[in-house]
Amino acid sequence: MRSPSPYPILDPDLARRTRAGHWTLFLINTILLVPAVFGTMVLWQFARESKTSLRTLVDLEMLVISLPTISGILAWAALGLLLTKPSFPRWHLGSWAFVLLFGLSSIPGGLLMMANLGEMPVYLGLSAFVICLGATASWISIRNMRLAWHSLRRSRNLSGPAPSRS
Q1: What pLDDT does 146 receive?
Q2: Calpha distance 82→121 (Å, rounded)
Protein backbone atom coordinates (compact mmCIF):
# COMPACT_ATOMS: atom_id res chain seq x y z
CA MET A 1 0.00 0.00 0.00
CA ARG A 2 1.42 3.32 -1.12
CA SER A 3 1.44 6.19 1.40
CA PRO A 4 0.50 9.72 0.36
CA SER A 5 3.38 11.87 -0.76
CA PRO A 6 4.63 14.40 1.84
CA TYR A 7 5.40 16.80 -1.00
CA PRO A 8 2.72 19.03 -2.50
CA ILE A 9 1.35 17.90 -5.83
CA LEU A 10 1.96 20.45 -8.57
CA ASP A 11 -0.62 21.06 -11.26
CA PRO A 12 0.76 23.05 -14.22
CA ASP A 13 -2.63 22.78 -15.95
CA LEU A 14 -4.25 24.68 -13.06
CA ALA A 15 -1.68 27.45 -13.40
CA ARG A 16 -2.28 27.64 -17.15
CA ARG A 17 -6.08 27.71 -16.87
CA THR A 18 -6.19 30.42 -14.17
CA ARG A 19 -3.41 32.64 -15.52
CA ALA A 20 -5.57 35.18 -17.42
CA GLY A 21 -7.97 35.88 -14.56
CA HIS A 22 -5.11 35.93 -12.07
CA TRP A 23 -3.08 38.54 -13.95
CA THR A 24 -6.15 40.63 -14.82
CA LEU A 25 -7.34 40.89 -11.22
CA PHE A 26 -3.81 41.40 -9.89
CA LEU A 27 -3.19 44.33 -12.26
CA ILE A 28 -6.59 45.92 -11.57
CA ASN A 29 -6.05 45.54 -7.82
CA THR A 30 -2.57 47.05 -8.14
CA ILE A 31 -4.05 50.10 -9.85
CA LEU A 32 -6.80 50.34 -7.21
CA LEU A 33 -4.47 49.72 -4.27
CA VAL A 34 -3.57 53.40 -3.88
CA PRO A 35 -7.21 54.55 -3.53
CA ALA A 36 -7.91 51.60 -1.22
CA VAL A 37 -5.05 52.52 1.11
CA PHE A 38 -6.08 56.18 0.95
CA GLY A 39 -9.69 55.23 1.71
CA THR A 40 -8.60 53.13 4.67
CA MET A 41 -6.51 56.00 6.02
CA VAL A 42 -9.44 58.41 5.66
CA LEU A 43 -11.80 55.98 7.42
CA TRP A 44 -9.41 55.45 10.31
CA GLN A 45 -8.73 59.20 10.57
CA PHE A 46 -12.47 59.85 10.65
CA ALA A 47 -12.93 57.23 13.35
CA ARG A 48 -10.02 58.61 15.37
CA GLU A 49 -11.34 62.20 15.28
CA SER A 50 -14.82 61.10 16.28
CA LYS A 51 -15.68 61.25 19.97
CA THR A 52 -17.40 57.88 19.76
CA SER A 53 -14.84 56.04 17.68
CA LEU A 54 -16.01 52.55 18.65
CA ARG A 55 -19.62 53.36 17.82
CA THR A 56 -18.56 54.84 14.50
CA LEU A 57 -16.57 51.74 13.56
CA VAL A 58 -19.44 49.45 14.48
CA ASP A 59 -21.87 51.54 12.47
CA LEU A 60 -23.22 49.55 9.52
CA GLU A 61 -22.23 52.10 6.89
CA MET A 62 -18.64 52.24 8.11
CA LEU A 63 -18.48 48.45 8.11
CA VAL A 64 -19.95 48.20 4.61
CA ILE A 65 -17.44 50.77 3.33
CA SER A 66 -14.35 49.54 5.19
CA LEU A 67 -14.80 45.78 4.58
CA PRO A 68 -14.25 45.94 0.78
CA THR A 69 -11.28 48.23 1.30
CA ILE A 70 -9.56 45.92 3.76
CA SER A 71 -10.52 42.73 1.90
CA GLY A 72 -9.29 44.32 -1.36
CA ILE A 73 -5.87 44.86 0.19
CA LEU A 74 -5.85 41.25 1.45
CA ALA A 75 -6.95 39.99 -1.99
CA TRP A 76 -4.15 41.94 -3.66
CA ALA A 77 -1.60 40.45 -1.24
CA ALA A 78 -3.00 36.93 -1.76
CA LEU A 79 -2.84 37.25 -5.55
CA GLY A 80 0.70 38.57 -5.28
CA LEU A 81 1.71 35.57 -3.18
CA LEU A 82 -0.01 33.27 -5.66
CA LEU A 83 2.37 34.56 -8.34
CA THR A 84 5.16 32.74 -6.50
CA LYS A 85 3.32 29.38 -6.35
CA PRO A 86 0.99 29.23 -9.38
CA SER A 87 0.85 25.41 -9.52
CA PHE A 88 -0.17 24.69 -5.93
CA PRO A 89 -3.92 23.96 -5.63
CA ARG A 90 -4.04 24.73 -1.90
CA TRP A 91 -2.58 28.18 -2.50
CA HIS A 92 -5.24 28.74 -5.14
CA LEU A 93 -8.03 27.85 -2.72
CA GLY A 94 -6.76 30.28 -0.09
CA SER A 95 -5.98 33.13 -2.48
CA TRP A 96 -9.23 32.94 -4.40
CA ALA A 97 -11.17 32.83 -1.11
CA PHE A 98 -9.78 36.30 -0.30
CA VAL A 99 -10.73 37.51 -3.78
CA LEU A 100 -14.24 36.10 -3.31
CA LEU A 101 -14.53 37.95 0.02
CA PHE A 102 -13.51 41.16 -1.73
CA GLY A 103 -15.97 40.62 -4.56
CA LEU A 104 -18.90 39.80 -2.32
CA SER A 105 -18.21 42.67 0.09
CA SER A 106 -17.68 45.31 -2.60
CA ILE A 107 -21.15 44.86 -4.13
CA PRO A 108 -23.00 46.18 -1.02
CA GLY A 109 -20.36 48.91 -0.69
CA GLY A 110 -21.03 50.05 -4.26
CA LEU A 111 -24.79 49.95 -3.70
CA LEU A 112 -24.43 52.00 -0.51
CA MET A 113 -22.23 54.51 -2.30
CA MET A 114 -24.79 54.71 -5.09
CA ALA A 115 -27.61 55.30 -2.61
CA ASN A 116 -25.80 57.98 -0.62
CA LEU A 117 -23.95 59.81 -3.39
CA GLY A 118 -26.19 59.07 -6.37
CA GLU A 119 -26.83 62.72 -7.25
CA MET A 120 -23.54 63.24 -9.10
CA PRO A 121 -22.81 61.34 -12.33
CA VAL A 122 -19.17 60.79 -11.33
CA TYR A 123 -20.21 58.86 -8.24
CA LEU A 124 -22.81 56.90 -10.19
CA GLY A 125 -20.10 55.80 -12.62
CA LEU A 126 -17.72 54.97 -9.77
CA SER A 127 -20.43 53.01 -7.98
CA ALA A 128 -21.29 51.08 -11.14
CA PHE A 129 -17.58 50.31 -11.65
CA VAL A 130 -17.24 49.02 -8.08
CA ILE A 131 -20.33 46.81 -8.46
CA CYS A 132 -19.08 45.42 -11.81
CA LEU A 133 -15.60 44.82 -10.38
CA GLY A 134 -17.09 43.01 -7.39
CA ALA A 135 -19.30 40.81 -9.57
CA THR A 136 -16.43 40.03 -11.94
CA ALA A 137 -14.01 39.25 -9.11
CA SER A 138 -16.60 36.97 -7.51
CA TRP A 139 -17.26 35.12 -10.75
CA ILE A 140 -13.56 34.65 -11.56
CA SER A 141 -12.73 33.54 -8.02
CA ILE A 142 -15.60 31.00 -7.91
CA ARG A 143 -14.46 29.57 -11.25
CA ASN A 144 -10.82 29.36 -10.17
CA MET A 145 -11.69 27.91 -6.76
CA ARG A 146 -13.69 25.20 -8.54
CA LEU A 147 -10.70 24.43 -10.78
CA ALA A 148 -8.37 24.31 -7.76
CA TRP A 149 -10.79 22.05 -5.87
CA HIS A 150 -10.95 19.60 -8.79
CA SER A 151 -7.17 19.68 -9.10
CA LEU A 152 -6.78 18.98 -5.39
CA ARG A 153 -9.22 16.06 -5.59
CA ARG A 154 -7.36 14.68 -8.62
CA SER A 155 -4.03 14.87 -6.79
CA ARG A 156 -5.50 13.12 -3.73
CA ASN A 157 -6.81 10.31 -5.93
CA LEU A 158 -3.39 9.91 -7.54
CA SER A 159 -1.53 9.75 -4.22
CA GLY A 160 -3.95 7.29 -2.59
CA PRO A 161 -3.38 3.58 -2.11
CA ALA A 162 -2.28 1.60 -5.12
CA PRO A 163 -4.89 -0.66 -6.69
CA SER A 164 -4.57 -4.33 -5.82
CA ARG A 165 -3.47 -6.75 -8.55
CA SER A 166 -5.67 -9.78 -8.11
Answers
A1: 92
A2: 37
